[in-house]
Design a protein that fits this description.
The chain has about 375 residues and is α/β, with parallel strands linked by helices. Helices cover about 30% and strands about 25% of the residues. Strands 3, 5, 6, 7, 8, 15 and 16 form a seven-stranded mixed beta sheet that branches. A six-stranded parallel beta sheet has the order 11-10-9-12-13-14, with helices on both faces. It has a three-stranded antiparallel beta sheet with strand order 2-1-4. One of its GO terms (biological process) is fatty acid biosynthetic process.
Length: about 375
């Protein structure tokens, strides 16, 4: 993806576009795009940024719906008379200018937010240097724009809950998800064996081949996951070695059947619930296998484990640089940073409407 950048700065200001909301609800009903002026010459520790790319994540949609635990505060800003917030948590920005007290950044640098609730769905933003994390230009813009959520979640789940060693096994549902694909590749880099559960489909062989090429040891269907007889096949694959870790983003029967495959003292980590059904674990597994069930939320670890965001991103970036973690397929929705409010609005609404068809990225030029 080639990049060119807007020169929308006029004498003393830049006209920025922001996607904001004043009440919670469905994005196509409550989001709107407005313009506001930003000074073209930052002061002190301020940094003027232009957005390069920002993804649409399920958590972004949940924030706008008002059902996500972490949400930006609604407050009067951007020339609005009512309290508003800007959508988006993840994105990549280019530094256009810095204040005279900024020491770690310069014009042309790449940065991402250092914390959550930054509000990335916008063309430009004026930020404090302390709210930014510099990204070296050693990976693609798409990778940098999406590094903080999906691959970082996969890395932390594989390294924080069990002391997995080369040759160990983990199992996951949602094997075709963005986190699932990242877990496959990160697991391979760490020397781990993986079993990934996917939904049956007409092009199953194509998907299995694709995930295997990424590094999946084995890929099975939900029907095979539910089969007691198929458990013998899995035991043959693992040569009797216990499966120590299970990653769950589905819930329901899918999760219950997956947990049955954990070995003694194994750990279930739940980071999503796509089926909208509860996680149900048979009592016998707790008593006789001593299974541990935990939840995972990458945003909470920023405060719970100081330095975890920076250390995780550094480790994931190294894997990307080395070619161990490849670009995931994304659908780009291009728009100019100089575009009208309506054009920016439509770019985001198109990305949101197609978010169930694959990873969507709004790309500014």
């Amino acid at each position: 993806m080639s990049r060119s950048f807007s020169s929308s700065a006029v004498a003393n200001s830049i006209r920025a576009k922001v996607m904001l909301y004043s009440q919670y609800g469905q994005p196509d009903q409550v989001l709107r795009c407005v313009s506001h002026e930003l000074p073209s010459s930052p002061k002190g520790k301020e940094v003027l940024l232009q957005t390069i790319a920002c993804p649409i994540n399920p958590s972004d949609i949940n924030q706008i719906q008002g059902v996500y635990p972490s949400r930006p505060e609604l407050k009067v800003q951007y020339g609005q008379s009512e309290p508003v917030a800007v959508g988006g948590n993840e994105g990549l920005f280019k530094v256009l200018a810095v204040g005279d007290q900024v020491s770690g950044l310069k014009e042309g640098d790449w940065v991402i937010p250092s914390n959550v609730n930054f509000g990335t769905w916008r063309s430009h933003v004026l930020s404090e240097e302390s709210a930014l994390m510099k990204m070296e230009k050693t990976i693609s813009a798409n990778q940098a724009a999406t590094i903080a959520v999906n691959p970082s979640s996969a890395y932390q789940m594989l390294t924080l809950f069990e002391e997995l060693k080369p040759g160990d096994w983990f199992i996951q549902n949602g094997g075709n998800s963005q986190v699932g694909r990242s877990a496959i590749q990160i697991g391979k880099k760490l020397g781990l064996n993986s079993i990934s559960i996917v939904r049956n489909r007409d092009n199953l062989k194509e998907l299995v081949d694709e995930l295997t090429a990424l590094g999946a040891t084995k890929v099975i269907t939900e029907e095979e996951n539910a089969s007691k007889e198929f458990g013998k096949t899995i035991a043959e694959w693992t040569n009797g070695k216990p499966i120590k870790l299970a990653l769950n983003c589905v819930g329901g029967d899918n999760c219950t059947n997956m947990v049955r495959k954990l070995g003694q003292d194994g750990t279930l980590v739940t980071y999503g619930g796509m089926s909208m059904k509860p996680v149900t674990i048979p009592t016998t597994l707790f008593i006789f296998k001593n299974i541990t069930a935990k939840g995972f939320w990458v945003s909470a670890n920023i405060k719970r484990i100081p330095g975890s965001r920076e250390n995780t991103i550094k480790a994931v970036q190294k894997m990307m640089e080395d070619g161990d973690l490849v670009d995931v397929k994304m659908y780009e929705n291009p728009v100019s940073a100089d575009a009208s409010e309506e054009e920016v609005y439509q770019a985001f609404q198109k990305a949101l409407a197609n978010s169930n068809k694959g990873k969507q990225l709004v790309v500014f030029s």
